[in-house]
Amino acid sequence: MSRLIVKNLPNGMKEDRFRKMFADFGTLTDCALKFTKDGKFRKFGFVGFKTEEDAQKALKHFNKSFVDTSRVTVELCTDFGDPNKARPWSKHTRQPSSKKDTEEKKTHEQGEKEKKKPKKILNVLGDLEKDESFQEFLAVHQKRGQVPTWANDTVEATAVRPEMEKKKEKKQKAAVEDDYLNFDSDESEESSDDGEDAADEEDKQDNEKEALKTGLSDMDYLRSKMVEKSDMLDEKDDDSSASAADENEEDEGKEEEESIVQHADSAYESGEKTSSQKSTRPAIEPTTEFTVKLRGAPFNVKEQQVKEFMMPLKPVAIRFAKNSDGRNSGYVYVDLRSEAEVERALRLDKDYMGGRYIEVFRANNFKNDRRSAKRSEMEKNFVRELKDDEEEEDVAESGRLFIRNMPYTCTEEDLKEVFSKHGPLSEVLFPIDSLTKKPKGFAFVTYMIPENAVSALAQLDGHTFQGRVLHVMASRLKKEKADQGPDAPGSSSYKRKKDAKDKAASGSSHNWNTLFLGTSAVADAIAEKYNTTKSQVLDHESDGSLAVRMALGETQIVQETRQFLLDNGVSLDSFSQASGERSKCVILVKNLPSGVQVADLEALFSPHGSLGRVLLPPSGLTAIVEFLEPTEAKRAFMKLAYTKFQHVPLYLEWAPVAVFTTPSAPRPEPQTKEKSAVKNDSVQNEEEEEEEEEDDQILPGSTLFIKNLNFITSEETLQKTFSKCGVVKSCTISKKRDKAGKLLSMGYGFVQYKTPEAAQKAMRQLQHCTVDEHQLEVKISEREVKSGVAQAKRKKQTARKQTTSKILVRNIPFQATVKELRELFCTFGELKTVRLPKKGIGGSHRGFGFIDFLTKQDAKKAFSALCHSTHLYGRRLVLEWADAEETVDDLRRKTAQHFHDAPKKKRKAEVLEGILEQMEVGDGDGE
Question: Where does the record place Basic and acidic residues bias (predicted)?
């Protein structure tokens, strides 16, 4: 844990001094001292560090040390929902509401049972209840433990009880009448005083009547007084219990404390001398739920002045609080229509009315104020109220979470590292401040599988992250307006759905074509370069095929663009091969119109964030834009993808991670030596990539299948065990997801070695070895290593090493002919053969072909020029090196393996693929 709690701090501790004490041990992310609601220091505080190592250093240094004359105790904080956390004992700690509800429910049930018992007894006794002899019989037969020792074994005192109950009812009635308060007059005060005087006079008369009764003994008179005293004690007990309950409620929340303060204000406003008695009275029901209180109003204020002060709001009612003399007390209550008006009225706080300073605050001292109760409950759970244009999202459906109270020193990678442990992430929104470039303290995370979001919400809410306690909750979605949905006016629903689909898929790599060039832009660039017109370039009646002419023009522009980018420190070799990791700050801008300038691109992208380098080749059809912050780059990507720039849509793509070979800004005129150095570096990189590709090839017999694994065994433990016999390239344990979204081991795995010899050695030495108290069974795997988690299969482009002069061309348009292919490829060297396999006799070709050059050098030149982005009839040509032709020795070896080796079981799919390949080869040879 990186968060500490420091206890037993001295009384005079200030936050600045508290922060300086711990600042020497590392970067602080949080520092807070705790106070009561009354502002009294509770002698403890919290400190958050960015790393756990810094927190451990501070703990070791300060624990059980002295600050001034106090010996402090420093401990590591636990997570908010940790079940092993000690139960809080302080009265300031908020108790769980469920426990409180159960206690109230029990007391309510007990009270109902006690009320039901006397009713049952009365129904059984009937008329005997009023019989004096029967009452005397009951009194005599009572238990001695329930009767005082000085009792006279008589029941004369029971006759006094009805009279005392009548007195009690009169007093309660007088108290209820006194609870009513009218701000416009003081009639209630006079009536309450009259009621109290009348009650006192009746008590005196009753006492005099009892004292003058004939035949009343001294013992009976004293007994009557004793009964009255006991009733008074009962009343006091009730009052004390009520006050104790009020104190408990005060400790539990902020709302009760405010109500007590407002009770004191109401007593002060009414001008009563006995304010302590008035403060225990129940609250007053307001005329509306939306009432504000003005304090400090002039004593001669009029209703019109209050209306002018509240402008442009229109109050429903205005009430003036008066004192005992009938004069204004300076308090005005204003009733409004809605919560929005109350919020606007609160903004008038500290304004002036008639030259006096006015304080405006919410009048929430009402007992049955439903809104204040709802607000306090929301504040208790740290949840704000939904706005009109928002709606709650179900995490199990959306998989989107909102995280707040994040440290301001964290990065997007830190956040991904924490939340990716619960499942793969599809999107992370990490807002930063536009001026300071620092995080705003909150973020949004979207999971690819919604069930993972549910588990992350349960486990990470209240989790300590870099010294701060994270607050994770379900995100809220803005409601779709009428002019934004599929039925919005102005355009067809198909067009809006298509645009929305394109924007949503703009971040997917399968939509990317790195060096895409529009046909119209290519024609403009060719016409400008050769000083001709666009109509002459697109003339289909001229010599040669128009499609081949456009393809060659596009190839030339792509080569020039690549060379320009390489000269300026850009590496684009990864674009033409299998897709890898992409950058989060560099965007490749494609499909630009001809004649675009760098200033135009800067004006387009700069409103979304701070720009770094902006590279635009001479043709001006493709550009690279670098942002300084990943969040700003992501915002620009989402805003500008597929938007119209001048008269064409923009196509955006994330560039590779190592797109810039130099961190500094490129020079405008690079020297020739630097160019050659960059070229040499690129050649070396290509050779290194080829070596890595050779290493990535899986040799047969180099993969082991391990069974009977313990479910707690990790991939690190397995790799450590099997690395004793050779170099381990990969080690995976097959896993599956449970209902909660967690990955569970399936009890088996795969270990892939660099050579088959190392696999054979491991099978001999590690057979039946014990790992985590389980004996392992090892054997050679007959299939490739697959990922532990089932994922969607997708065919990736794999780079092949040149072994022949033959090129396999895929994705050939069906209207293309052998003549057009020969015309396209003969530009780079002399051809030997051009073959287009056909579907059948008289049918069209099958969409791929073979181009065989006389020399390997010509084939390599054609492959390097056309493999990046060459389009024929609008379809991009995909080039691969064809397999070498089999010699007679290879055929003999295959035949011998077929007859002598044990046949292996093949899947149906593998058998069908083999038959199709043989048919394709046969068709190609036939032509």
Answer: 98-115, 162-176, 220-233
CA distances from 131 to 138, 158, 227 (A): 11, 12, 21
Q: How many CB atoms lie within 10 A of CB 593?
A: 16
- pLDDT at residue 66 tops 90: yes
Nearest alpha-carbon partner for 553 in 588, 528, 590: 528
The rounded percent of the chain whose pLDDT value lies above 70 is 58
CA distance 19 to 27: 11
389-478 shares its CATH topology with 504-670: yes
Fold for the domain defined by 806-881: Alpha-Beta Plaits (3.30.70)
Model pLDDT for residues 104-144, shown as the tens digit of each residue: 555 656 665 555 555 556 566 666 767 777 777 777 777 66
- Higher per-residue confidence, 566 vs 503: 566
What CATH number was assigned to the domain covering residues 389-478? 3.30.70.330
586: helix, strand or coil: strand
Q: How far apart are CA 565 and CA 560, in angstroms?
A: 9
Q: Are 320 and 183 in contact (CB under 8 A)?
A: yes
Compute φ and ψ for 583, nearest 5 degrees: -75, 160
* Residue 676 pLDDT: 45
Is residue 713 a contact partner of residue 771, using CB atoms and an 8 Å limit? yes
Task: Give the position of tokens 């805003």.
Answer: 639
Residue 230 to residue 659: CA distance in whole angstroms: 91
Q: Is the CB of residue 642 less than 8 Å from the CB of residue 649?
A: yes
Domain 253-377 in this protein, CATH class: alpha beta
Taking CA atoms, 298 is separated from 358, 480, 609, in Å, by: 9, 49, 53
Task: Provide the 3-class DSSP secondary structure of residue 740.
Answer: coil
So where are the chain's domains? 3-86, 253-377, 389-478, 504-670, 694-780, 806-881, 888-926
Q: Say if CB 799 and CB 867 are below 8 A apart.
A: no
Residue 13's alpha-carbon distances to 10, 59, 90, 724, in angstroms, are 6, 19, 21, 58
d(CA 220, CA 201): 23
Q: Give the tens place of pLDDT for each residue, 134-171.
A: 777 777 777 666 666 555 555 444 444 555 555 555 55
Q: How many CB atoms lie within 10 A of CB 759?
A: 25
Residue 126 φ/ψ region, left for φ over 0, alpha for ψ in the -120 to 50 degree band, beta for the rest: left
Is 800 within 8 Å of 881 (Cβ atoms)?
yes
Residues 6+ apart with CB under 8 A from 571: 656, 658, 659, 660, 661, 682, 685
Given this model, what pLDDT does residue 65 score? Answer: 92
User: 443, exposed or middle or buried, with CB in 10 Å at 0-12, 13-18, 19+?
Assistant: buried
Q: Please name every residue paired with 356 in a beta bridge, in sequence order, or none if there are none.
A: 353
pLDDT digits (tens, 9 = 90+) for 380-429: 555 555 555 556 667 777 888 999 998 988 888 888 899 988 888 888 88
- C-alpha dist (Å) from residue 318 to 14, 315, 333, 354, 670: 45, 7, 6, 17, 79
Residue 401 and residue 419: Cα distance in Å, rounded?
10
Is the omega angle on the peptide bond into residue 312 within 30 degrees of 0, that is, cis? yes
Beta-bridged to residue 443, according to DSSP, are: 403
Largest CA distance in the chain: 145
446 closest CA partner among 389, 397, 479: 397
Topology (CATH level 3) of domain 3-86? Alpha-Beta Plaits (3.30.70)
Max mean pLDDT range (162-171, 268-277, 801-810): 801-810
703 and 781 in contact (C-beta within 8 Å)?
yes
Angle, helices 15-23 vs 52-62, to 10°: value is 110
SS3 call for 922:
helix
Which residues partner with 777 through β-bridges? 707
Residues in the chain, overall count: 927
> Roughly how many angstroms between the first and final C-alpha of the chain, as a whole number?
72
